[in-house]
Structure formats: structure tokens, C-alpha cells
Give the backbone structure.
Amino acid sequence: MLDDRKAAILRAVVEEYIDTAQPVGSGHLARSAELDVSPATIRNEMAALERDGYLAQPHTSAGRVPTEKGYRFFVDTLESPASLEASQRQQVRSFFARAHGELEQMLAETSRLLSNVTAHTAVVVSPGHERSTVRSVQLVALGPRVVLLVVVLSNGLVEKRTLELGSEVGEERVTAASTHLAAELVGLTVASAAAANPTATGDAPTDELVATARSTLRRGPEDDEQVYVGGAARMAQAFDAVQTVRRVLELLEHQLVVVSLLHDVLDRGLSVAIGTETGLEPLSECAVVVAPYEVDGERTGTIGILGPTRMNYPQALAAVATVSQRLGARLREG
């Protein structure tokens, strides 16, 4: 624990470094920060903070910069959630007011929105399907032997599968099979719907079509937990070292790694992971800010931003929280 004076000085250093990306000197801090202490006292306290691991001095004559431990203290002691600027709030409201269409398109556009609002790389993980329930099931005849299966899930996902049949089926049987499937599957989880034993209708061609549709469901939703990355090019602006940018971009190409990272951060009860806290060596100079988005009180998917440890944490937390809430509300509306 730090006393009030050390904590105030540390917060001032972090805020100044976030703004300028330049090492912070005691003299500059005395002139610019609202600290009612002398430059000599600030210099002594900064030296103590360096000994305790909260600050580091890149060069002998340079000022100090925050360490991972310093950033962690700053994030953990933020007094109240920040709010987005009026223009950013309007940007988010306008986006979700017109956000319609396929879930995949909405999530991809949401990642770009979050990147634009924060000026960092944004990641949106699509809803998982394990606990999702079936909202509706419909069969649509596309031809004498081709039927489209459309399943709408509670997480907002719409699954479409084309069924190729061995024999011709009339539209009346397609309608009968669709009605039967809806009566049996709506309200069940995806897993339960796939495993449930079908009830016969008494009409062999209709039962065969129902069985074909259910067999397709058992194969599970395609592309579970897709990752949508917005603003990947911003990584080049965030780091001077080309090798760092290359390693981070390579990591973003591995969807399973990204999903595991975001889940792990949330499972540890964190909203921010800084540097080595991510558990991934390529992200040792990065910070991740994450939040779940929820539908009907259940965690549905995850969004987050990825940037340098020198990011504006209050703004990043506000942006991620606002977008996650709006996205969950939009998916709830259907």
C-alpha cells in the first residue's frame, strides 16, 4: 500500500506519461500537476516509488516511466468509471440505432466501431452456443429436392443450412416438418435440441425430412466463437519496434489463442490485463481491456481492446463497457 502522497504522485506520473509518452521529471510534475508539495519532495518520493518497483528510469538523466506494477496500481485505484465524450457517445448510439442484418456483419462492424472510438485494435468474440436456446426453426423449400433450414438462437446467431434430399418433397410436407420441428425444439438449448429423440408424425416422408434436419443440427453450429478484429493496422502506430508489431499481428491471426486470452482474463475477475499478466510473451508490452456482453443476464460473448501498456485506461474501460452494454441490448432486441 502507498500513502496518499506517493499515490497522488504515481497517478500524476502515469497520467502525464499516457499523455506525452515522455519520461516524467520531478520538476515538470511540480509545475504541471496539482501537487501541493515542493519539487524536492516529489523527487524523493519518485525515487522511493522507483525502489518499490512502481516507476523506472530509462536513462540516468531521464525522468521516470510507469512499470507494470505502477499501471496496475493506477487501474486498481481508479475512483469512478470515466464516461465517453459526447461525440463518442453519439457515435456509439448512432451505430447501434442502425445496426441490423446478419450477426456476423454486426460483430465485424462493432469491432471497427470500438477501434475508431479508442484508437486501438479491437476484438469481438462471437457468441458461444453451448447454453444458447432455440428461438425459432423454419424449413424453406428451395427446390423439389433442396430445403433451407433456418435456426435462430437466443444469442442472436442465425444458422442457415442447405439440405439436399434423396427424393422430391412437396411444399406441404416441408411446412408440416417445419411446424413439427418448431414444436419440439423451440426453447431447448442447442445441445438438448441435437440430442432429443424425435417424435414421429406418422407420415414417412415428413419424418425423413425431420430426421435430416435434426441430423444437421447434431453437427453443431459452424464456426463457433469467431473472432472479429477491427483496426489491426493501429498496432503499427502503437509501437516503434517492427518486431513487436509483427509478433502481435501474428498472434491476432490465431483465433483460439485470442478467445482463450479474453476468457482467461475474465475468468480471473479482471477487466484489464497488463503486460505479463496476459500470460503471452508477445503481449508483454501490451494491455488488454475486456468486458463480456450479455443477453438475458447470461454472458454471451466478449469484446476487448488491445494496445500498448501506455493506454488511456479510464477511456478504454468506458468505451468497452459502453459498447458491450449496447451490443448486448441490440442482440436482446433481435
